[in-house]
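Troubleshooting log. The previous structure file for this entry was overwritten by mistake, so regenerating from the original sequence record. Sequence copied from the archived sheet and checked twice against the printout by T.R.
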Amino acid sequence: MGCFCIGTNQVDLQAAEDRGIPVFNAPFSNTRSVAELVLAEVVILMRGIPQRNAAAHRGEWVKTAAGSNEVRGKTLGIVGYGHIGTQIGVLAESLGMQ
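Regenerated output below.
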């Protein structure tokens, strides 16, 4: 049984052992995926997508780009510079962020 995270504490290890099921973890398997999702959220928020989506669901159409900003040239603060933070920095730089 593979746990694609840090640790195996969400698995009943004794039950797995009793059934002969090997348990392992892959602590860095999702690092890039998490970093990509964080950057996607940054872009979505900078462009006001949640508000525009809500307006569209109310039948409104926001025809202006006001408040829709690009991330290029912006400074991103990263709290924690472990595996995920490092990847966020790499991706942010490739988008032209500091």
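The longest strand covers residues 2-3. Archived copy saved in two places this time.
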